[in-house]
Each structure stands twice: as C-alpha cells, then as structure tokens.
C-alpha cells in the first residue's frame, strides 16, 4: 500500500530541504506526495510584500505567483530524484496554513506531514517557528516530521525515543515510529531521564509494555541522571550521533514542555536532528 505524504511549502530554502529529505527517506517506498502551499488570506504575498497591482484582486495575483513557484519547486524535486515509485500533486489553497492542512489531511487520507522547522519569515532566534508549532500541536490526525534547516538525509542508524514512562503506551500511537525503523533497519533507543532512583510500579509496567510493542524492531533502553531533561537528551543525541528523535504528543505533557519557548531555546538539539511527533488520541 502506498504512503500518502503531505509536504508543506512556502517555497523557502528550508521547505525545499524538508521536501528533499522526505524523498530520500521514502526512496524505496511507493508514495503519493501532496505538496501544499497556502496563500493570501491576510492580503499579503507569501514573502510578506503587499499586493499592489491595479486591476487584479489579491487572490488572483497570489494564485498566479503560486503556480509559477510550484513549477520551479517541482523542477527542483525532480532534478533531485526522478523516482518512478513517487507521484506528485500540488495543492494551492487560499486559506490559513492550519485550516489548509486539516482539509488536505482529511480529503487525501494523509499518513504523515513533513515540513521544515522555519519558513521565509522565521526568526533565526526561534528553533521552532510558530507555524511549525501550530501544526505539531493542533493537527492530531497523523504524525508530523519537522526537518531542521540545512539537515541532509542520512539513513537513520537509530532513533531516540525519550519517555518518562508515566503514561501507558498504545501500539497505534507508536505504529509510525516502528514503520520508519523497519524501513531503514533502524534501532530505537528508549531514553529515560531519571527523576528518582527507582521507577514506580506503573512506570515499570509501562516499560514492559514498551518492550512488547518494540519487539519487531531493534531497540535498547537507557537511563540517565541529570538536573534537566533538555541537557540530557541533547548530550545523548550528540554522543551517539543519532539521526532522529521521536515524541508522543500528550496534551499538556512531555512534548508541550519541550516546545515552550525557553526550553526550546536552551535545548538546541532540534536544530540538528529531525523531530517526529507521534499522536495520542485518547
């Protein structure tokens, strides 16, 4: 069965880089790529300049410019990879980013969204731009993979999966992490940054459950002691040269803490490895 992948673009260098990463990540799979650009809702062009041409509506101007940019964007994708297993469909939506994404996810039955962590208007002082954070937090129908600026694809030797073992795991929420691991013969490194010397009974049960869920892929368990979650995850990823990190996005829980502005600024590792946000639908 083919994978149905939504790529988000504002035609920036970073959006192109994320799209190229996606093509390489799924190079051995039959995929339908849907490439979405949203434009014009606020009366401004994609790059922030106002529409001023006489005799044309902002909608018409934006649509025309988007069509031209899509042609150039697709040329660069095909120059990078002329893969017979991949098909493409471009979608221009006169909508907000979040509304446009939700409509395409529902209509096209999307498996995963892949996007860059910063766009054309992104500040270099913010690792996760607001658009990326909104998609990560508010699109609950499928996983999201955020690819940092200038990261080039390398076959992931291992994926780091931080957890506090405080919530029971479900196979369906970890399915996509397992799929990516199986695609590239990748091991999953479960990382627990210890808050105390011993796990509670419920934490032990959740750890055992995770072992059963990951039985089909290579995996190992690690425990680290440290004063802060961010520094320990950062050090672990750096030491092992890991290629990706994955989280389950529980509401107001682990991932919400990680994408708060002060912690993101301190954390730093998001600028070096792609971040896979998995969905919890309880």
Automatic annotation (TrEMBL):
Domain UspA: start-end pairs: 3-148
Record-linked Gene3D superfamilies: 3.40.50.12370
Superkingdom of origin: Bacteria
Pfam annotation, one family: Usp
Family indicated by similarity: Belongs to the universal stress protein A family.
Entry protein name: Universal stress protein
Organism ancestry: Bacteria, Pseudomonadati, Bacteroidota, Flavobacteriia, Flavobacteriales
